[in-house]
Specification:
Layout: H1 2-8, E1 11-17, H2 22-31, E2 35-37, E3 40-46, E4 51-57, E5 62-67, H3 72-76, E6 81-84, E7 86-87, E8 90-91, E9 93-94, H4 96-107, E10 125-128, E11 137-143, E12 148-153, E13 158-163, E14 169-171
Antiparallel strand pairs: 1-5, 1-6, 1-9, 2-5, 3-4, 7-8, 10-11, 10-14, 11-12, 12-13
Length: about 180
C-alpha cells in the first residue's frame, strides 16, 4: 500500500523547456490537467515605433510542475519539454514553501525581480555590461546583497562601492 501512495503523492519539480516555448508548454500542460506554475512578470518593452507591457518568464527555459509519479511521463511527452532538472541523478523536488515564496514575491510591485545565473564571489573579475559605466572591468571585492557590489576597478586602481543590479554585471573568464 505504501508504494501505491508514493505514486499518488504530489511534489513540485522543475522542467527544462526549449527556448521561448514557456507559455506554449504552460498551455499544453494545463490542457492535460497537469498543475504547473510559470513565474511571469510584466516588463515594458521598447520597439522602434511603440512601447508595450508584456509578460515574460522570470526564469527563461524553466517551468514548475506539481505532479505525482504517475504523471511523470506525461510531462516529458509534452511538446517543447526537454527534461527534468536533476540533482544527484534524480528529478529535483522543490519544497512547496519555496514555490509559495516565489508566488508571493511576484505579487508585489515595489521592486523589479531579476534572476541571475552568475555566481558573483569576491576575487572574481567582472565587467559592467549595461548602464553609464558599460565596459568598466574590475575585481569583485565584496557583494552586499544582489544590487550592491564593491569593485576594484582595474583601469584606475581604486575601490568603489557601486549600487548596480547583478543583471548589469558579467563574470569574465579566468585569466590563463
Amino acid at each position: 500500500m505504501t508504494s501505491y501512495n508514493n505514486k499518488l503523492q504530489k511534489y513540485w519539480y522543475v522542467v527544462y523547456i526549449r527556448s521561448r516555448a514557456e507559455k506554449k508548454v504552460l498551455l499544453e500542460l494545463t490542457a492535460r490537467n497537469v498543475e504547473c506554475f510559470l513565474p511571469l512578470q510584466k516588463k515594458l518593452r521598447q520597439w522602434k515605433d511603440r512601447k508595450k507591457w508584456v509578460e515574460t518568464p522570470l526564469m527563461s527555459g524553466y517551468c514548475f510542475v506539481y505532479i505525482s509519479r504517475a504523471e511523470y511521463d506525461i510531462v516529458l511527452q509534452t511538446n517543447n519539454v526537454v527534461c527534468y532538472v536533476t540533482f544527484e541523478g534524480k528529478a529535483a523536488v522543490i519544497p512547496e514553501n519555496q514555490i509559495d515564496s516565489l508566488k508571493q514575491m511576484l505579487k508585489q510591485n515595489e521592486f523589479e525581480v531579476t534572476v541571475s545565473q552568475e555566481n558573483f564571489e569576491p576575487g572574481k573579475k567582472v565587467e559592467i555590461i549595461e548602464g553609464s559605466m558599460i565596459g568598466l572591468q574590475g575585481e569583485l571585492v565584496e557583494a552586499r546583497g544582489k544590487n550592491k557590489f564593491i569593485l576594484r576597478l582595474t583601469q584606475i586602481n581604486n575601490i568603489f562601492t557601486i549600487e548596480i543590479p547583478s543583471s548589469q554585471l558579467s563574470l569574465l573568464p579566468p585569466e590563463k
